[in-house]
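Worked example 2:
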Amino acid sequence: MNLLETPIEYLKGVGPQRGDLLRKELGIHKYADLLNLFPNRYIDRTRYYKINELQNSNSEVQIVGKIINIKTVEQGKGRSRLVATFVDDTGQMELVWFQGQKWIRESIKINIPYVIFGKVTQFGATYNMAHPEMEFLDEHKASLRSAMQPVYPSTEKLGNKGISNKVINKMMQQLFGETQAMFSENLPNYLLDELKLIPKNAALFNIHFPKSQDLLAKAQFRLKFEELFFIQLQLITKNLIRKHKIKGLPFERVGENFTDFYNNHLPFDLTNAQKRVLKEIRNDLGSNAQMNRLLQGDVGSGKTIVALMCMLLAKDNGFQSCLMAPTEILANQHFNGLSELLNPETSGLNITIKILTGSTKTAERKIIHEALENGTLDILIGTHALLEDKVQFQNLGLAIIDEQHRFGVEQRSKLWKKNDVPPHVLVMTATPIPRTLAMSLYGDLDISVIDELPPGRKPIQTVHRYDSNRLKVWKFIKDEIAKGRQIYIVYPLIQESEKMDYKDLMDGYESISRDFPLPHYSISIVHGKMKPADKDEEMCRFAEGKTNIMVATTVIEVGVNVPNASVMIIESAERFGLSQLHQLRGRVGRGAEQSYCILMTSHKLSNDSKIRMETMVRTNDGFEISEVDLKLRGPGDIMGKQQSGVLNLQIADLVKDKDILQLARHHAIKLLKDDAPMEKPEHAKLREAFIELSKKKTIWNYIS
């Protein structure tokens, strides 16, 4: 048996109780897990201070000296402290313990050289150090521990149970002693040479016991590259296997539906970006492999028309299509937009389209189910309702998923199972994903980007205003309404919270009603606690121009498409994340008129909030905004719960290490082009490690 597979409790100094704690708190089940518990940071212990060099800076220092006496000092109320006098050849100081005094008193040796380490404070003329880390000088010199002291991830429970950083360090020394620091290399020699990577043994040793800053940097680079390289190998292999193993439905012809619509009924000319993306999709659909493509495009870039063209291709080849959206509002918007484009009177096409959501009445559901099964329904738009077992297609050929990060893998896999041969999958998102995240989360998907807005769209002008400028902002709104425009005002909260001094929706609605009285102005209100029917009615009134102002919470982040709305005011904008601010801004700028986004904040702004406001004012580019967002929030927060497990990286960081990620992807692609099965002799170790990583995979793991 591989020694690294040994359960952690068998490591000397661990045992069943500590083993159980390590499992529960840090997920350490076996030796290999402990080996891969990488330090968060390092304390530089290359320098030894003299007592006469000490300053009252509360910083951590280490000193070589001797204890010459030790005494207990009573503090009253039955409490005491243990105080030792510690000296070197330049002076003396005190070491103090408030806990564990009996054990410490018994273990301390007088007049023997120690190395002490800890924070120094000053009382009067005397320096002291409370609860220092202590080692005999001889042991310190012989120790595996290096001058760069690692600080490991920990939890409060581990600390309370005595599993300190020092204890974990000792466990690590024991592990290296038992394994004799012999760890098998898993990267081919030519890659080590080309990238000047240090060997696996040296990398693991120097990540835990770095001999110098230089060796630590080399160890970190080697292990980060390896982690990202194996992730990329898995993702790219997954893509290759899917293309070879999972046969795609053949969309062999471009028929009259696609051609007639493209030539005669497109409401506007496609942008070059839309044409490029359509070409990429058509190549996929005609390749005999199952398409799994991610379509990224900023708000208003024209993803829907691309989706429709794909559905027409499906119809031309005798297949049905479905489009799944995360909310009823968005599903309805897609349905209304596509129904208008496919109107038989204007388009001349005979395409049947229906919508299925939680609100669909039972009688209508029955009609939809029958039409799906007998093949008379061509396109079905819907929410999670599409995933129900009762929803059976005659021949589903194309599944389009909108805002896919809101759906889990299991939910998406249900769509795959709606046909004997998995349908082609097009995943769409209006949330621009930073390149590093796309390469890590969707590295197994082919990615298309619509990076061009339709002609005639004017960039939205964004400004940041403080609450003290409110009167000027209100005057601006009145001027816009006088021109016939409509306004959104978005709030972060529905009800006031005592803890947070932010504008709340109801308070805002009342004050706006006072400042914009009837009959000149009419106001809609929409928030998440309203019944769906009431919400839809208010949205319809606004969309039809019956109200001038829409006061809302973020429920309008996706959903309403009102070309006449030209101003988006975001109250307490500091409460919103960058991607949310960008999504909200995308609700305006849909018509030919100049549109504006006004970010209202208090004067008290954190540094991150200032960066968010400056970024929004500076650029309309969703991809640039997403990169700033990634730096501010990190990958886990951006992707949300559904995807966060995917990014459980042990040492690499997608924000700081994007150059290493690109290097790893480049070499993974190069290797798989040359030897996809990894069967060459020089890839034997790599293949072994890869198989170990890829165990327990089923065909459903090929879904992204």
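The CA atoms of residues 300 and 453 lie 7 Å apart. The longest strand covers residues 60-76.
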